[in-house]
Amino acid sequence: MAYALKSKTFVQAALQLAGTFLIVYFFPYTLLKPLVLIAFWWVLLRPLSREEVIIFILASLFFVIMDAVVIAQGKLVFSESFVFGVPAWELFMWGFTTVHAKRLTFLNDKPVFWAPGLVLMLFYMIIFSIPIGDTPLFAASAALLILGLFFKHDPLTLRYTGYLLLLGFLYETTGVASGLWHYPQAHFIPIPLWFTTMWAGTGFFMICVVWPGLSIVLQRIDGSRSEHSA
Protein backbone atom coordinates (compact mmCIF):
# COMPACT_ATOMS: atom_id res chain seq x y z
CA MET A 1 0.00 0.00 0.00
CA ALA A 2 2.79 2.43 0.96
CA TYR A 3 4.63 1.63 -2.27
CA ALA A 4 1.46 2.28 -4.30
CA LEU A 5 0.96 5.66 -2.59
CA LYS A 6 4.59 6.65 -3.21
CA SER A 7 4.34 5.59 -6.85
CA LYS A 8 1.16 7.65 -7.27
CA THR A 9 2.91 10.65 -5.68
CA PHE A 10 5.86 10.36 -8.06
CA VAL A 11 3.58 10.05 -11.10
CA GLN A 12 1.57 13.10 -10.04
CA ALA A 13 4.74 15.10 -9.43
CA ALA A 14 6.10 14.14 -12.86
CA LEU A 15 2.84 15.20 -14.53
CA GLN A 16 2.81 18.50 -12.63
CA LEU A 17 6.37 19.26 -13.65
CA ALA A 18 6.04 18.16 -17.28
CA GLY A 19 2.79 20.07 -17.78
CA THR A 20 4.20 23.21 -16.18
CA PHE A 21 7.29 23.18 -18.38
CA LEU A 22 5.21 22.62 -21.52
CA ILE A 23 2.87 25.50 -20.70
CA VAL A 24 5.68 27.89 -19.79
CA TYR A 25 7.78 27.17 -22.85
CA PHE A 26 5.18 26.51 -25.55
CA PHE A 27 1.85 28.17 -24.67
CA PRO A 28 1.75 31.19 -27.02
CA TYR A 29 -0.61 33.63 -25.28
CA THR A 30 1.47 35.48 -22.70
CA LEU A 31 -1.22 37.10 -20.56
CA LEU A 32 -3.34 33.93 -20.49
CA LYS A 33 -0.40 31.76 -19.49
CA PRO A 34 -0.66 32.34 -15.70
CA LEU A 35 -4.38 31.53 -15.79
CA VAL A 36 -3.70 28.31 -17.67
CA LEU A 37 -0.94 27.42 -15.20
CA ILE A 38 -3.17 28.04 -12.17
CA ALA A 39 -5.99 25.97 -13.66
CA PHE A 40 -3.55 23.15 -14.46
CA TRP A 41 -2.03 23.21 -10.97
CA TRP A 42 -5.48 23.28 -9.35
CA VAL A 43 -6.52 20.13 -11.18
CA LEU A 44 -3.39 18.20 -10.18
CA LEU A 45 -2.76 19.62 -6.71
CA ARG A 46 -6.27 19.74 -5.25
CA PRO A 47 -7.27 19.56 -2.53
CA LEU A 48 -4.87 22.14 -1.12
CA SER A 49 -4.42 22.41 2.62
CA ARG A 50 -4.62 25.74 4.40
CA GLU A 51 -0.83 25.75 4.85
CA GLU A 52 -0.28 25.07 1.15
CA VAL A 53 -2.56 27.91 0.05
CA ILE A 54 -0.79 30.36 2.36
CA ILE A 55 2.67 29.20 1.28
CA PHE A 56 1.65 29.42 -2.38
CA ILE A 57 0.58 33.05 -1.94
CA LEU A 58 3.52 34.10 0.26
CA ALA A 59 6.15 32.42 -1.93
CA SER A 60 4.67 33.96 -5.06
CA LEU A 61 4.66 37.47 -3.58
CA PHE A 62 8.11 37.20 -2.02
CA PHE A 63 9.87 35.91 -5.11
CA VAL A 64 8.24 38.44 -7.42
CA ILE A 65 9.82 41.07 -5.18
CA MET A 66 13.16 39.26 -5.19
CA ASP A 67 13.00 38.88 -8.98
CA ALA A 68 12.36 42.61 -9.28
CA VAL A 69 15.35 43.37 -7.03
CA VAL A 70 17.71 41.15 -9.04
CA ILE A 71 16.36 42.62 -12.30
CA ALA A 72 16.96 46.16 -11.00
CA GLN A 73 20.57 45.17 -10.21
CA GLY A 74 21.06 44.10 -13.83
CA LYS A 75 21.72 40.47 -12.91
CA LEU A 76 18.63 39.05 -14.64
CA VAL A 77 16.66 40.00 -17.78
CA PHE A 78 13.45 38.33 -18.94
CA SER A 79 12.53 38.35 -22.62
CA GLU A 80 9.12 39.81 -21.76
CA SER A 81 7.82 41.96 -18.92
CA PHE A 82 4.48 42.32 -17.17
CA VAL A 83 5.37 44.13 -13.93
CA PHE A 84 8.76 45.29 -12.62
CA GLY A 85 10.46 43.39 -15.42
CA VAL A 86 8.81 40.11 -14.37
CA PRO A 87 6.67 38.26 -16.98
CA ALA A 88 3.09 37.30 -16.17
CA TRP A 89 3.79 33.55 -16.14
CA GLU A 90 6.54 33.98 -13.52
CA LEU A 91 4.21 35.57 -10.94
CA PHE A 92 3.08 32.26 -9.45
CA MET A 93 5.93 29.91 -10.36
CA TRP A 94 7.54 29.94 -6.93
CA GLY A 95 4.21 29.29 -5.25
CA PHE A 96 3.81 26.17 -7.35
CA THR A 97 7.43 25.12 -6.89
CA THR A 98 7.35 25.18 -3.09
CA VAL A 99 4.04 23.29 -2.85
CA HIS A 100 5.02 20.81 -5.58
CA ALA A 101 8.29 20.02 -3.78
CA LYS A 102 6.42 19.59 -0.51
CA ARG A 103 4.04 17.05 -2.02
CA LEU A 104 6.91 14.98 -3.40
CA THR A 105 9.43 15.11 -0.55
CA PHE A 106 7.49 15.30 2.73
CA LEU A 107 6.04 11.76 2.44
CA ASN A 108 5.21 10.84 6.06
CA ASP A 109 7.75 13.18 7.65
CA LYS A 110 7.00 16.54 9.24
CA PRO A 111 9.49 19.42 9.21
CA VAL A 112 10.80 20.68 12.53
CA PHE A 113 11.29 24.39 13.11
CA TRP A 114 14.97 25.32 13.48
CA ALA A 115 15.26 28.70 15.21
CA PRO A 116 18.87 29.51 14.15
CA GLY A 117 17.72 29.07 10.55
CA LEU A 118 15.63 32.22 10.91
CA VAL A 119 18.78 34.27 11.50
CA LEU A 120 20.59 32.61 8.61
CA MET A 121 17.58 33.21 6.38
CA LEU A 122 17.59 36.92 7.16
CA PHE A 123 21.28 37.16 6.22
CA TYR A 124 20.53 35.17 3.08
CA MET A 125 17.82 37.61 2.06
CA ILE A 126 20.13 40.56 2.69
CA ILE A 127 22.91 39.05 0.57
CA PHE A 128 20.61 38.55 -2.40
CA SER A 129 19.17 42.05 -2.00
CA ILE A 130 22.36 44.10 -2.08
CA PRO A 131 24.24 44.94 -5.29
CA ILE A 132 27.37 42.76 -5.16
CA GLY A 133 29.18 40.83 -7.88
CA ASP A 134 28.30 37.29 -8.89
CA THR A 135 31.39 35.74 -7.28
CA PRO A 136 30.97 37.38 -3.83
CA LEU A 137 27.25 36.57 -3.98
CA PHE A 138 27.96 32.91 -4.65
CA ALA A 139 30.69 32.71 -2.00
CA ALA A 140 28.64 34.39 0.74
CA SER A 141 25.42 32.46 0.04
CA ALA A 142 27.33 29.17 -0.23
CA ALA A 143 28.99 29.81 3.14
CA LEU A 144 25.61 30.40 4.80
CA LEU A 145 24.08 27.33 3.16
CA ILE A 146 26.99 25.07 4.14
CA LEU A 147 26.79 26.39 7.71
CA GLY A 148 23.09 25.63 7.84
CA LEU A 149 23.49 22.14 6.40
CA PHE A 150 26.30 21.41 8.85
CA PHE A 151 23.88 21.78 11.75
CA LYS A 152 20.61 20.72 10.07
CA HIS A 153 20.86 17.76 7.71
CA ASP A 154 18.07 15.34 8.54
CA PRO A 155 16.67 13.27 5.62
CA LEU A 156 13.66 15.54 5.00
CA THR A 157 15.83 18.66 4.92
CA LEU A 158 18.21 17.02 2.45
CA ARG A 159 15.35 15.74 0.27
CA TYR A 160 13.60 19.10 0.03
CA THR A 161 16.84 21.08 -0.42
CA GLY A 162 18.21 18.65 -2.99
CA TYR A 163 14.98 18.56 -4.95
CA LEU A 164 14.81 22.36 -5.14
CA LEU A 165 18.38 22.33 -6.45
CA LEU A 166 17.40 19.77 -9.09
CA LEU A 167 14.37 21.83 -10.09
CA GLY A 168 16.58 24.89 -10.30
CA PHE A 169 18.97 23.14 -12.68
CA LEU A 170 16.11 22.03 -14.94
CA TYR A 171 14.35 25.38 -14.77
CA GLU A 172 17.42 27.55 -15.35
CA THR A 173 19.00 25.50 -18.13
CA THR A 174 15.80 25.17 -20.14
CA GLY A 175 14.78 28.79 -19.54
CA VAL A 176 18.12 30.23 -20.64
CA ALA A 177 18.44 27.81 -23.57
CA SER A 178 14.95 28.73 -24.82
CA GLY A 179 15.63 32.47 -24.52
CA LEU A 180 12.96 33.20 -21.89
CA TRP A 181 15.57 34.95 -19.75
CA HIS A 182 19.31 35.50 -19.53
CA TYR A 183 21.96 36.65 -17.07
CA PRO A 184 23.90 39.63 -18.53
CA GLN A 185 26.72 39.39 -15.98
CA ALA A 186 27.36 35.66 -16.57
CA HIS A 187 30.50 35.39 -18.74
CA PHE A 188 32.08 31.95 -18.79
CA ILE A 189 28.83 29.98 -18.57
CA PRO A 190 25.33 31.31 -19.38
CA ILE A 191 24.05 30.70 -15.84
CA PRO A 192 25.80 32.21 -12.79
CA LEU A 193 26.98 29.89 -10.04
CA TRP A 194 24.80 31.63 -7.45
CA PHE A 195 21.74 30.01 -9.00
CA THR A 196 22.76 26.82 -7.16
CA THR A 197 22.82 28.46 -3.75
CA MET A 198 19.69 30.47 -4.50
CA TRP A 199 17.62 27.37 -5.31
CA ALA A 200 19.17 25.10 -2.67
CA GLY A 201 19.01 27.87 -0.08
CA THR A 202 15.35 28.43 -0.84
CA GLY A 203 14.70 24.75 -0.26
CA PHE A 204 16.72 24.72 2.95
CA PHE A 205 15.01 27.70 4.55
CA MET A 206 11.56 26.66 3.38
CA ILE A 207 11.90 23.28 5.06
CA CYS A 208 13.70 24.47 8.21
CA VAL A 209 11.91 27.75 8.86
CA VAL A 210 8.93 28.63 6.68
CA TRP A 211 6.87 25.41 6.48
CA PRO A 212 7.23 24.45 10.18
CA GLY A 213 7.04 28.09 11.30
CA LEU A 214 3.73 28.57 9.53
CA SER A 215 2.42 25.34 11.06
CA ILE A 216 3.27 26.60 14.56
CA VAL A 217 1.57 29.95 13.91
CA LEU A 218 -1.60 28.33 12.59
CA GLN A 219 -1.73 25.89 15.52
CA ARG A 220 -1.51 28.79 17.98
CA ILE A 221 -4.23 30.69 16.12
CA ASP A 222 -6.47 27.63 16.17
CA GLY A 223 -5.72 27.07 19.86
CA SER A 224 -6.57 30.68 20.67
CA ARG A 225 -9.86 30.42 18.81
CA SER A 226 -10.73 27.20 20.65
CA GLU A 227 -10.08 28.85 24.02
CA HIS A 228 -12.28 31.83 23.15
CA SER A 229 -15.11 29.63 21.86
CA ALA A 230 -15.02 27.30 24.88
Could you please describe the fold and organization of this structure?
By secondary structure, this protein is mostly helical. The protein has one domain. Helices cover 72% and strands 2% of the residues. The chain is built from eight helices and two strands. It starts with a helix and ends with a helix. The N terminus is likely disordered.
Count of alpha and pi helical runs: 8
Biggest sheet statistics = 2 strands, antiparallel
What is the element string, with H for helices and E for strands? HHHEHHHHEH
Query: Structural class, please?
Result: mainly alpha
Strand order of the largest sheet: 1-2
Helix percent reads: over 70%
Low-pLDDT parts are 1-5
Distance between the termini: 40 Å
Query: Which term fits the overall shape?
Result: globular
Write down the overall mean pLDDT: 92
Give the amount of beta strand, in percent: under 5%
What is the number of strand segments? Answer: 2
Please tell me how large the radius of gyration is: 18 Å
Domains (count): 1
Brief rundown of the structure:
With 230 residues, the chain is an all-alpha fold. The chain has helices at 2-26, 33-45, 50-72, 93-105, 115-129, 134-151, 155-177, 194-229; strands at residues 77-78, 181-182. It has one domain (2-224).
